[in-house]
Amino acid sequence: MPALSESPAPPLPPIDHQRIIVLGSRSPRRRELLGSMTGPDHLHILPPSSAAEPGFDSLTADTQIRQRLLEIVTLKHQDVCRQVPQQPWYSVERPPIVVVADTTVVTGPADGQRQVLGQPNSEHWQSEVREWLQSRLSGTTHEVWTAVLVSLGNQVRQAVVRSRVTFASISDADLDWYLSTNESPGKAGGYAIQGFAAAFVTHLDGSLTNVIGLPLLETMALIQSLSEKNSPKHQDTAFQSPCGLDDYSTPPGSPRN
Hints:
Layout: E1 21-23, H1 28-38, E2 43-45, H2 62-83, E3 97-107, E4 115-117, H3 125-137, E5 141-152, E6 155-167, H4 172-180, E7 201-205, H5 208-212, H6 216-225
Parallel strand pairs: 1-2, 1-3
Antiparallel strand pairs: 3-4, 3-5, 5-6, 6-7
């Protein structure tokens, strides 16, 4: 992955500020990131109705991890889309753009030897994060992967964005200090690069916003790629759903978050 450039970044692509964008996430960080581009008036938060989701146990290959991430965002998307028609702002004539994402930390020396670090256990997060930082993250380079899925009617776009983060060696005293900040719960890998964990970062290759939880440049490019002429209000067939799903009344058969 190429190193970060110090040259100014190109401007993000423009978006349709007249169309509602639905963010299917509980994450305040994703809300802040996407809201910085859409403005508060056109962004609606509609998290998935269930916090359950498939895990990464026994998955050690890159292709397996990527596939599981895409499976998770697909399930999130289905969940959120089933809720959209019940919202007071919903319009059949102008359906919203739906955005969902999932972020995880991937450690390990090479493909086939990976270990995935999700969010720490809410009850025992201190011991879990301590082990992660000591044995998996301290003094090493790891990757942060975010799967993003966006849709407009029957159009769906998705991508998996990867960034590489290098941590300095973390002393026991520094580890005790970081755990005392209570920053770890709800964070992939048990840390927040935009928070106190920035003190440990010595190098970053790739998107910073990807590590935070939503790769902005790639997400906005996916949104921009949704063609207005192919949106449901331009189609001759009857419009069935806002996200290309045939039946919103049937609960999805798999867990989702």
